[in-house]
């Protein structure tokens, strides 16, 4: 979970409890990736992964209308609108190098497929390679591109949509429909993701043909998660119908809890009022950073999936223990009722 939620403390706690934590490194520099992986290794001797965003092509566009649209929020919060919006040169290349030099045991990615040489280099180092798919076609492309695992990201998922071979609205397949269809279509193992918050969801994912489940939102409300208290409170308070998919924060569709910024930037927006990813992300970053410091949820990207009512405020180790116990109970309950039939 790029953006600060997945602290090294959270990744390590998940590993120490028997899970597989992943550092969301998409917005980190090479030096920050090195520091984060070192810190995880200090806190845990368990394996963990690094996640990056595959390169997303974008065109430079006139940012003036988009800047005008967010100017009043910047004024209200008291920080300056950023001037430069373009990402640093060679960012992904340097991130991949840092990931390869790290002690991470998996390289995971979304938004597309990493270049073949990066995938081959990761495999040569013994790292597992995992890509994100939102359709069967994308899963097949990932398998053909060298992925060892495919993350099937259902429409319920919090955060950015991983779609890369279909338009975003075409890639909104629910987890329960997506996972078995991908499992039938590829020969690599499938990891289910999207709306899974407890052991019932994990057990269901396993029954649908997944080898594992990837949970995001469920870990954002743990003590170790590095998001603002107002963000954690918003997840705990949110009902299942209070998220939507928006481009307002980053320019790329992502699911989050509806708030004032989302409504006022997106509703009635004209073409050009929201920049393409990653420019809109850069345009809103200082606003979101200040909002996190001020604990103001109305300007934060409150990425969350549709399972919000199942969120729990707890320590990551306790959440992991609960997930294991619930999964075992759900699986034994299911086999019991099958026997009864
Ligand atoms: C705050 C947040 C940040 C995320 N960042 C990333 C990311 O950097 N890379 C990625 O592959 N997926 C990211 N995701 C998506 C998750 O990998 C996963 O698909 C999603 O959390 C699953 O749905 P759930 O939130 O309902 O558990 C993010 C999700 C959230 C909630």
Explain what the structure shows.
The chain has 341 residues and is of the alpha/beta class. The protein has one domain: TIM Barrel (Alpha-Beta Barrel). The protein is 43% helix and 13% strand. It contains 13 helices and 10 strands. The strands form 2 sheets. It has a 7-stranded parallel β-sheet with strand order 1-2-3-4-5-7-8. Helix 2 (30-43) links the parallel strand 1 and strand 2. Helix 1 runs parallel beside helix 2 (30-43) and helix 3 (64-77) runs parallel beside helix 12. The longest helix is centred in the C-terminal third of the chain and has 25 residues, at 316-340. The radius of gyration is 19 Å and the shape is globular. The model has no long low-confidence stretch (mean pLDDT 96).
Question: What's the pLDDT, averaged over the residues?
Answer: 96
Q: At the first level of CATH, what is the class?
A: Alpha Beta
Class based on secondary structure composition and strand pairing:
alpha/beta
DSSP helix fraction: 40-55%
> Care to count the β-strands?
10
Please tell me how large the radius of gyration is. 19 Å
Give short descriptive properties of this protein.
13 helices; binds flavin mononucleotide; alpha/beta; 341 residues; three-stranded antiparallel sheet
At a glance:
The protein is of the alpha/beta class. It has helices spanning 8-16, 30-43, 64-77, 91-101, 116-124, 136-144, 175-185, 199-207, 217-220, 229-237, 260-266, 279-294, 316-340, and strands at 21-24, 48-53, 106-110, 128-133, 149-153, 159-160, 190-193, 212-214, 243-246, 254-257.
């Amino acid at each position: 979970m790029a953006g600060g939620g997945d602290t090294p403390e959270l990744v390590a706690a998940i590993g120490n409890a028997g899970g597989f934590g992943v550092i969301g490194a998409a917005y980190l520099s090479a030096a920050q990736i090195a520091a984060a992986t070192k810190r995880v290794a200090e806190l845990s001797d368990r394996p963990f992964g690094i996640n990056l965003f595959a390169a997303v092509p974008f065109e430079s566009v006139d940012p003036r209308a988009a800047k005008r649209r967010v100017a009043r929020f910047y004024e209200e919060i008291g920080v300056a609108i950023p001037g430069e919006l373009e990402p640093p040169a060679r960012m992904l290349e340097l991130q991949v190098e840092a990931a390869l030099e790290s002690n991470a045991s998996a390289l995971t990615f979304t938004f597309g497929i990493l270049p073949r040489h990066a995938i081959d280099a990761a495999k040569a180092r013994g790292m597992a390679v995992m890509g994100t798919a939102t359709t069967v076609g994308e899963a097949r492309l990932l398998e053909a591109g060298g992925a060892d695992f495919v993350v099937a990201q259902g429409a319920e998922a919090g955060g950015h949509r991983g779609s890369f071979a279909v338009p975003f609205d075409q890639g909104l397949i629910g987890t329960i429909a997506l996972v078995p269809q991908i499992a039938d279509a590829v020969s690599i193992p499938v990891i289910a993701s999207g709306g899974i918050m407890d052991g019932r969801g994990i057990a269901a994912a396993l029954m649908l043909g997944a080898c594992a489940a990837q949970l995001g939102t469920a870990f954002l409300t743990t003590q170790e998660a590095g998001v603002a208290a107002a963000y954690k409170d918003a997840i705990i308070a949110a009902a299942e119908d209070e998220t939507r998919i928006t481009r307002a924060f980053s320019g790329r569709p992502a699911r989050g809890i509806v708030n004032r910024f989302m409504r006022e930037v997106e509703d009635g927006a004209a073409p050009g009022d929201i920049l393409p990813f990653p420019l809109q992300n850069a345009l809103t970053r200082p606003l979101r950073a200040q909002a996190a410091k001020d604990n103001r949820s109305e300007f934060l990207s409150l990425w969350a999936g549709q399972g919000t009512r199942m969120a729990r405020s707890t320590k990551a180790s306790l959440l992991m223990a609960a997930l294991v116990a619930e999964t075992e109970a759900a699986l034994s309950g299911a086999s019991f009722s099958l026997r009864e039939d």
